[in-house]
Each structure stands twice: as C-alpha cells, then as structure tokens.
Amino acid sequence: MTVLETLRHRTVYADISVSHKLSQDDVYEGYFVDKGSLVHTNISIILQNPKQHPGKDSFNPGRYLDLSYPTHREPPSDYPKVQESIAFGAARVQALPSPSAA
C-alpha cells in the first residue's frame, strides 16, 4: 500500500509521460479521435483527482484498504497491484512472443 501511495502522491512521471499515436479511430467520452492522433496522458492530474483520491494532498497508504475510499477494491489480498498503477503509464502493452511459442 505504501508503494502505491508513494507512486500516487509524488509520481515520478509528473507531466512528462510519453505521447502515444492511435492505431485506429476512437471515441472517448463522446469525442471522436482520429487514427494517427497523438494522445498525451497527464498522469499527475489523474493521480491527484479528488473524486478518486479524497484528501489528495495527504500521504495515506490506508486509502487502498479503507472501504470508504474509491480506491478500495476487493478482495484486499488481490489488490492493489502495483503493476496496474497508472503511475507506470496508460499505454496498451504488447508482449513479445516467447521463443517456446514458435
């Protein structure tokens, strides 16, 4: 929980995450975005959203375990997963095929 809260509270990405080029047309919240458009994810704004993170300016690792917080997910033994943190970026990830898959 402490690692996730550290990533949320003071993310290393700040406002400098890498832009991504859309591989197909997309619609986001009613807005049409053309294929080939560059999309920039402002990770620090997402991680400081007061609706998702009440008391966003305070360091509170317990927000991931407390049922009253929107960040709480069940079961606590499975969540939170550090790898799923937006602090690591928001791009689609494609794994390379393993040599044994050939």
Automatic annotation (TrEMBL):
<dbReference type="GO" id="GO:0020037">
    <property type="term" value="F:heme binding"/>
</dbReference>
<dbReference type="GO" id="GO:0005506">
    <property type="term" value="F:iron ion binding"/>
</dbReference>
<dbReference type="InterPro" id="IPR001128">
    <property type="entry name" value="Cyt_P450"/>
</dbReference>
<feature type="region of interest" description="Disordered">
    <location>
        <begin position="50"/>
        <end position="79"/>
    </location>
</feature>
<dbReference type="InterPro" id="IPR050364">
    <property type="entry name" value="Cytochrome_P450_fung"/>
</dbReference>
<keyword id="KW-0408">Iron</keyword>
<protein>
    <submittedName>
        <fullName>Uncharacterized protein</fullName>
    </submittedName>
</protein>
<dbReference type="InterPro" id="IPR036396">
    <property type="entry name" value="Cyt_P450_sf"/>
</dbReference>
<dbReference type="GO" id="GO:0004497">
    <property type="term" value="F:monooxygenase activity"/>
</dbReference>
<comment type="similarity">
    <text>Belongs to the cytochrome P450 family.</text>
</comment>
<keyword id="KW-0503">Monooxygenase</keyword>
<dbReference type="Pfam" id="PF00067">
    <property type="entry name" value="p450"/>
</dbReference>
<keyword id="KW-0479">Metal-binding</keyword>
<keyword id="KW-0560">Oxidoreductase</keyword>
<dbReference type="GO" id="GO:0016705">
    <property type="term" value="F:oxidoreductase activity, acting on paired donors, with incorporation or reduction of molecular oxygen"/>
</dbReference>
